[in-house]
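User: Please work through this fold.
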Amino acid sequence: MKNLFNKTIILKSLLISTIFSLFIYLAYFNIEIKLINSILALSSLYFILKANKLESFWIGFFIGILWFYWISLSFRYYDLAFLIPIVILGVALVYATIFYIFGLIKNIFLKALIFLFIFDFVEPFSFNWFKPELIFINSYFGIEKWQFGIILLSIALFIYLDKLNKKLKFISLIPLIVSLNIFYSTKNLNMPNLKIYISETKLKQNEKWDRDNLNKIVDDNFKIIDYAIDNEYELVILPESAFPVFLNCEPVLMDMLKAKSAEITILTGALKFEDENYYNSSYFFIDGKVKVADKVVLVPFGESIPLPKFLRDIITKVIFGGAEDYHTAKKPTDFNIKNITFRNAICFEATREEIYKNSPKYIVAISNNAWFKPSIEPTLQKLFMKYFTIKKEVVVFHSSNMSDSFILN
C-alpha cells in the first residue's frame, strides 16, 4: 500500500495519462495537428504497455478523471453538487481497477492483445466512451481494429527487442507503415439532395425546464422554423428536447407544428408520455403528419440506472426523488423525406454501435449538451461521431443545444 502512493509513480502515471488524453483537449481548442497527435498516441501506448501494476493503477485513475470528470456535472441540476467529487473519484477508481488488473499481465504480447479487445467487452455501467483507438482519430494512423492491432503489436515487439537486442528494436516499427492512412483512400460520401438547416441553440439547463421560460422557448423554436422556411430549406432540425414538454400531450402545439410542416419538414426533440411511461423522443413532422422515434439506448445514470433492482430503487428514491427510468424503443427508427432515409439518433445514441446497424447512409443526431457545459463532453461526443463516420461510412447531421452543430462526412 505504501508503494501505491509513491510520488514518483503517481507523477509518472499522471504524465502518461495526460499524453494519452491530450488529443481530446487539443480538439477542444480546435487544434488538430496530425503529426503531434500521432506522436502523442504512439508514445502513450508505449508507456502504457511498459507500465507495471502500480503505474497502471494510477494511469487508469487519471484517465478516468481526464476523460470523464464531466459526468459529475449533471448533478448540479439535481441539487446534488456535493456529489461531484465523489462521482469523479468513483469513476476514476473504476478505471484504476481495470488498468491495475491489466497491469498484472507480464507477457508483453498478451498485454497488447488484451488492450486491443478489453474495452470492447468491459464497458463500466454500459458506458462505452472509452475506446483506446480513438486516440488516432486525428492522426496519420487508421482507427480500424486491425490497424490498432498492428500498432500495438509493433510497440510490443519494440519493447521486447529493446531487452533482447537493441540493434534490432527499430525493425519492429516497420509494420506501423501498414497502419498509415496515406495508403488507403477514403470514400467520398454523397450528401443528400436536400437543403437542410441544422439549428444550434444556447439554452442553459437551469433555464430550459423552468416553466416560466416555456413560451419564449416555443417562440424561439418557431422563429428557427420560420427562418428555415424563409430561406427555402426543405428540412429543419432542432436539438434534443428543443420543446421541453411532453409534446404528444400538447395538442395545440402539435397542431401548430403540423401546420408548419406543410411548408417545411421538421425534426425536433421532445419528451413523450404514453401508457404511464416516459420517453425521450424525436418528432418528425411532414406534410401535416407526425412520426415519433423513441430513444433506443439510454444514458447510464441520466435516463436509466444500470444496477440490480434493489440498488436501482434505492438510488432512484434517494438521489432522483423517485423518478422512473425512461422507456425505450426496441430498435432504431428511420425517417423518410423525398425518398431519402435518415436514421434517428438522440445524443448518446449517436456514439453507440446499435444505431449504425444495417448500414444507414445518413444519421440525424440531436443533443442537449447543456447538462455538461462547460466541459470536454461535446468534444468527446464529436470525436466518437467522427469515429463512426469513418468506420461506418455514414454522414452525420448533428443539431445541439449548448454546443456546436455540425455535419460529419
